[in-house]
Amino acid sequence: MIKKKKCVAMLLAGGQGSRLGVLTKHRAKPAVTYGGKYRIIDFPLSNCIHSGIDTVGVLTQYEPLELNAYIGTGSPWDLDGITGGAFVLPPYVKGERGEWYTGTANAIYQNIYFIEQYNPDYILVLSGDHIYKMDYSQMIEAHEDNKADATIAVIEVPMEEAPRFGIMNTDESLRIEEFEEKPKKPKSNMASMGVYVFNWKKVREYLIADSKDEKSSNDFGKNIIPAMLTKGERLFAYPYKGYWKDVGTINSLWDANMELLQEEPGLNLYDDAWRIFSRNPNKPPHFVDRGAKIKNSLVSEGCYIYGTVENSILSAGVTVEKGAVVRDSIIMQETVIREKSKVLKSIVDEEVVVEEGASIGGKGEIAVVGNKAVIRAGATVAAGESVPAKRIVKNTTGGVS
Predict the structure, then answer these.
(1) What are the residue ranges spanned by the domains of the chain?
(2) What would the pLDDT profile of 16-26 be if each residue is shown by its tens digit?
(3) Which residue range or ranges hold the Glucose-1-phosphate adenylyltransferase/Bifunctional protein GlmU-like C-terminal hexapeptide domain (predicted)?
């Protein structure tokens, strides 16, 4: 018999992340590398275990292979217990029919059976797209104190950015009176973080009703939350004051990584009280040659540095050869930067080879190179240019074969 749980977390990790361009061409956004050592999904998974939530359904859909392999049994996050764990939940055929997840609410609806095994009091719905630390147990406690049916985590954003988010309008007690999905003229700057606590029995009714509505988008923000407000359910906002970053674009991903190099970064990765766990590549310590120059950079295990690395973040197994320069850039796993080449203000994906004398990026927009691409000797990838995965750039104008 499966043990009853107070709360089950449902982590929505199936997003395509199209705004990240070539970086998510062959992987889901939550699997994208961050900070040289982590994947985006490490943050909500680590938050769960720190918050005392040991049962997490990870709902995958788009390009799930890399993400599924990375999560594995959930052991890096201590989510491999006998009575709980991390469970990968892709769409599947039921009876004679099956369908993709058509929206955030539909993804939870399709996994009602999984949730009901644990008979939870609450479900915690999370997005796999954000970088932040948060104690969800405090949010659940506020939910209980308010005798709420749903609680939505919110963060204050600049008013000019508010139209990009779902916006909460509340009374003095933080009870939500109105929810506006990406309003042109927002009435407040309290933006939804995509973190929800629901009373399971209550939201289950709304999920079932929503599944029968052919006109519904099957989305929490567009359908479930407005329906609950219309019926007078008790919905409350939960203000969050810490660091939170949506890394859904190339610029925001680059900014979030570069912030780690500031003298006092907004996100402390060295906090032993709230460690961010990840799957360790088990490589030897990084090696820095006596002639190498490293300044204000994060260099992960297994790297070999013979050239110059400045204001950059290098993931495990990166090689920077003699005379090569890496500056203001993010270099992902197992990439090789050969002699006398330059990588400036760029994001370079995994297993890329930048051959001798090649050049990537410069001043202005961020250059991006996709997984396993090859930049031939002497070739140039201009600032702001994007090279697809596995392509070969072999001339000085950024052309690909």
Answers:
(1) 7-261, 287-393
(2) 667 899 999 88
(3) 289-362
Assigned CATH topology for domain 287-393:
UDP N-Acetylglucosamine Acyltransferase; domain 1 (2.160.10)
Would the annotation count 217 as a binding residue?
Answer: no
Q: What is the pTM of this model?
A: 0.93
Q: What are the tens digits of pLDDT across the range 70-100?
A: 898 899 999 988 888 999 998 865 655 567 8
- DSSP per residue over 225-245, as a string? HHHHHHTT--EEEEE--S-EE
Structure-token match 């201590």, residue found: 78
Cβ atoms within 10 Å of 284's Cβ, excluding its own? 9
Q: Quick one: pLDDT at residue 278?
A: 95
Is 85 annotated as ligand-binding?
no
101 annotated among ligand-binding-site residues = yes
pLDDT digits (tens, 9 = 90+) for 300-359: 999 999 999 999 999 999 999 999 999 999 999 999 999 999 999 999 999 999 999 999
Q: Cα–Cα distance between 157 and 134 in angstroms, integer?
A: 17
Q: Which long-range contacts (CB under 8 A, 24 or more apart) does 361-367 make?
A: 361/329, 366/250, 366/251, 366/254
Residue 197 to residue 199: CA distance in whole angstroms: 7
192 annotated binding-site participant: yes
